[in-house]
Amino acid sequence: MINQFFSILLAIIGIGVLIFLHELGHYFMALKRGMRVETFSIGFGRPIYSWNRGNVKWQIGSLPFGGFVKIAGMQKEGEKEPEEIEGGFFAKKPLDRLIVALAGPFANILFAFFAFTLLWLLGGRESPLSSHSQYIGWVDPSSDLYKSGLRPGDRIVSYDGHPFRDWHDLLYTSALKRSEIRIAAEEISRFSHRVVLLDQSFPTYQDGRMLEGIKTIGLFAPASYLYYASPNNGLSSLSPIYDSGIQEKDRIVWADGSLVFSVQQLSQLINEPSLFLTVQRNKTTFHTRIPRMMLSTLNLSPKEKVEIDDWRYDASLRKRLDDLYLIPYLLNAEAIVEAPLTKEYVGFDARNPYTIPLLKNDRILAVDGEKISSRKEFLQKAQQHRVLVIVERKEYPSVFWKKTDACFASFVSMDDLRTIISSIGRKNGVATAGSLHLLKPILPTTPKELAEKGDEETAKRLQLIQKEVEALGSSSQKQMAIQEMGKERSRLVLGLPLQDLKVTYNPSPLSLFYKSGAEVYKILSSLLRGQLHPKWLVGPLGIVEIVKKSWDEGVKETLYWFGFISLNLGFVNLLPLPVLDGGYLLLSLIEIVSRKRLKPKTLDRLIFPFFVLLVLLFLFILYQDIMRIFGRYLHF
Fold it and tell me: Are residues 42 and 101 in the same domain?
């Protein structure tokens, strides 16, 4: 708790330093241009501490976000108009005012370049490999994008005619008020070494897993290079994967018939009702993932139900008939397929060689890697789904961000992978080939069950979620949060802490400055055009949270975010709004060109409504920050 408080305090102080630099630019340039500075304030509101130095009152405001330098002559004093006040802001030439107004944003922009240069000299920062990937980590199975054939592991080439660099491009496009997005992508079938080009427009839609108003086409995550990161106190003995043979830094590459590219995809595979079967067809043996279904979900005839009830009795299962798990096929006593139970095949993917429908006379040899020889044994094994996982075990070299996609272009040795998969459930099965290893079958469990068994970390996390939900009061958002909390508690997990591989991100200072500046420009221009909603912006609390997290990750990460926030602060203040520095720049330029001074009343009429709007926008974004912080449980 003390460390948390200390990190937040450092974050607030750090942001205060950026504001101090901004105001210091105004301060020094005002003095240099012969203006009289009256007050230098860090923060707004009632001063909590102040002191006088020279003729300037220095103070710290009760609201730590923001600050100002009060220059004489900004307002009317007694009978004197602003331009009549000696040493006043408006008493000076418009060029002097323009330079003073520009000095604050310039100080922030200069600091940003300094921070990016220092970061480059220090060797750059570490960032998740997924942040720089063009490959897909997870696709919403209900989306048109999925129906078109795009899958995890495929590569995005361009969006709306623009080259696709990394996931930020798509996130930004999704946040705009767009009805459709055009995607050019490569559909990569890795087992057959086949690539098909896709170029198509897809409609955007609102999904409950995303912030309200932000639409998607079905792409939810970039590809990650997932490996097991052992916690400080080691893996809990209560974890389902504890006895599987997992080792620290093992990379998850395959699970239940699919190559794994993200946490979301792995979670989908674990929670998808299926069985991985070893099947003999004529004289050949193959492997396939078959839907695992409750009898109550199948439209069976009374005769078929009676027959399956006989199976249940023979297997000594005490479950209710409707709660019985089976596959959509009738089997004889030797576990040989006699006929399908339904004409609707769910879960079969033409691009995946391990999702093959069964045919009459196919014989099931193993369920989830465990051998069976009869229908009785099959039915017993089918009541619990054990996940099969293949990991890569090797030393991972440091990766430069420009080489990120090379990690997914090769992925793993397909020959070694086939060697292991082809032996699953067979006599003298192979558990190791090259750097790949097959773990022992894993029986997943739920966070609720883990907490009940005494897993302290899981129990603490669930309690934190509960507290955050209760803090939402009686809003409609709370009802949605309760539903999400229920899903989280009952979601099957392997109990494995996973981490994305870190890459070294170290572009030149000019490149990072340009990219960051272009990103700020895109956001501000979209906001002004009405394409981007203000509620998606990060406010003061969100900024503190970002800086606090960067403190936790190290000096380089903190340096980057200070530079980026400083650049934002500089650019935002250059907006041509009368209440901001950019407004004074614009008014000074108008006066230089027209050679006419604006009347004080005109200035007041321009500044006051914009000041009110800015305060309202600040309060609105602050409210959105609070709601996001209390709603973090929605984004596990």
Answer: yes
Q: CA–CA separation, 272 vs 220, rounded Å?
A: 18
Q: Residue 569 sits in which domain range?
A: 2-122+541-635
Spans in the chain with pLDDT lower than 50: 1-2, 616-617, 619-636
Q: In what order do the strands lie in the sheet with 180-189?
A: 162-163, 155-159, 180-189, 194-203
Classified as helix, coil or strand, 18 is: helix
Q: Is 154 part of a structural domain of the chain? A: yes
Picking from 321, 351, 382, the residue at the C-terminal end of a domain is: 382
User: What pLDDT was estimated at residue 635?
Assistant: 30
Q: How far is CA 138 from the centre of its chain?
A: 12
Query: What is the bridge-based pairing of β-strands 370-371 and 436-438?
Result: unpaired
- Per-residue pLDDT tens digits for 499-548: 998 888 899 999 988 888 887 777 777 666 665 555 555 555 555 666 66
Closest CA to 326 of 302, 348, 352, 300: 300
Q: What is the pLDDT of residue 380?
A: 93
Pick from 346, 336, 254: nearest CA to 298: 346
The stretches of 471-599 forming alpha helices (DSSP H) are 476-490, 509-528, 540-553, 555-573, 581-594
Return the structure tokens found at 533. 């909603």
Task: Report helix, strand or coil for 48.
Answer: strand
Q: Are strands 389-392 and 293-294 parallel, antiparallel or unpaired?
A: unpaired
Structural domains in the chain (count): 3
Closest CA to 198 of 210, 188, 206, 208: 188
Strands (DSSP E) found in 282-361: 284-291, 293-294, 325-326, 329-331, 337-340
Residue 266 lies in a domain: no
pLDDT at 336: 95
Reduced 3-state DSSP string for 206-270: ECCCCCCCCEECCEEEECCCEEECCCCCCCCCCCCCCCCCCCCCCEEEEECCEECCCHHHHHHHH
Is residue 553 flagged as an active site residue? no
**Of 246, 127, 188, 221, residue with least CA distance to 512:** 127
130 phi and psi angles, rounded to 5 deg: -60, -25
Determine the straight-line distance between the first and last CA of the chain, rounded to whole angstroms. Answer: 22
**What is the pTM for the complete model shown?**
0.80
Please check whether residues 110 and 133 belong to one and the same domain. no
Q: What does the pLDDT look like over 231-263, one tens digit per residue?
A: 776 788 889 999 999 999 999 999 999 999 999
**Catalytic hit among 23, 126, 484, 488:** 23
pLDDT of residue 552: 63
Looking at residue 230, what is its pLDDT? 81
Structure letter (DSSP) for residue 441: P
Task: Find the DSSP H helices in 275-413.
Answer: 302-314, 375-382, 404-410
